[in-house]
Design goal:
alpha+beta; Rna Polymerase Sigma Factor, Chain: A; globular
Length: 300
């Protein structure tokens, strides 16, 4: 057990790095609950290591903690994969919601967009770990190698495969936040108003709709592709499943201006739009309606 100042020092060090650890692990797993479990295991390992009487001083606590967290997350991946195999309908990451004027801490936590997280789901766990550490957090390959217990050359190969895979499916592009907010407002007005013609004008021809309801009412068994199909599904869903006390709050979700829908005081859904690089057309609609993934959202 840790005692006195040693325990206090270990706790302070872990607290200082908790935000980073949360961001890294969440971007690997896409689940807040799983991320919190991984961080708990990381803390227990860290506390045990510091509490050992013959323990040598850790020269780089940040590197040590990241290594524990990343490898604990990778070990948990098989459990998550088994859980996903029985998941009904499309699976989307649990949204991270903050106010639009949130500070730097929230910006760092929400560095990866919903659209990119969906693409990262198609990588192998090791490719995803390398991509997140290198592309999102700026770790050089030589620092990633000991974290994953791989050679630098192996890490470079993983990074190359991951980068090609991601960029083929999602070219580098950052929408103007003001434009994204405006498009989101117009989209919801058209969707909730049943305005099919306006929706068709906003959607790109190759738009895809993901709706994660976790097997509840309105669950789609697979994503819907194409402007006409997506528009009709959106209008139909809004008509059939719209609660009487619906109201909308505009929030930042995984770093992007988005919308959170409430039924009275309870979160009803999160809507995130992905805009096409060539303009303000919508190429991706991500709707999270699984109550288990909305439980941490508050109407403030």
């Amino acid at each position: 057990m840790l005692e006195g100042t040693a325990e206090d020092a270990a706790t302070r060090v872990f607290a200082d790095h908790r935000e980073l650890l949360f961001s890294v692990v969440y971007n690997l797993l896409g689940s807040v609950a799983d991320t919190e479990d991984v961080l708990q295991d990381t803390w227990l390992s860290w506390a045990s290591r510091n509490g050992a009487e013959d323990a040598e001083e850790i020269q780089n606590p940040r590197a040590y903690l990241v290594r524990i967290a990343v490898n604990t997350a990778l070990a948990r991946q098989s459990l998550i994969n088994r859980r996903r195999e029985t998941y009904v309908g499309p699976w989307l990451p649990e949204p991270l919601v903050s106010h639009a004027d949130a500070g730097d801490a929230a910006e760092r936590t929400e560095a990866v967009s919903m659209a990119l997280l969906v693409v990262l789901e198609t990588l192998t766990p090791l490719e995803r770990a390398v991509f997140v550490l290198h592309e999102v957090f700026g770790y050089p390959h030589t620092e990633i190698a000991p974290i994953l217990d791989r050679s630098p050359s192996a890490v470079r190969q993983l990074a190359h495969r991951a980068r090609e895979h991601v960029h083929a499916r999602r070219p580098r592009f950052q929408a103007d936040p003001k434009v994204q907010r405006q498009v989101t407002e117009r989209f919801l007005q058209a969707a909730l108003g049943g305005d099919l013609e306006s929706l068709l004008e906003m959607l790109a021809p190759d738009v895809t709709l993901w709706r994660d309801a976790g097997g509840r009412a309105g669950t789609m068994l697979r994503p819907v592709h194409g402007r006409d199909k997506v528009a009709r599904v959106i209008v139909g869903t809004a008509t059939r499943h719209r609660p009487e006390n619906l109201h909308v709050r505009y929030r930042t979700v995984n770093g992007d201006p988005s919308a959170v829908l409430f039924d009275a005081d309870a979160p009803f859904g999160v809507m995130v739009l992905d805009l096409a690089p060539e303009g303000d057309r919508i190429q991706g609609v991500y709707a999270v309606a699984n109550p288990d993934k909305l439980s941490r959202i508050e109407d403030e």
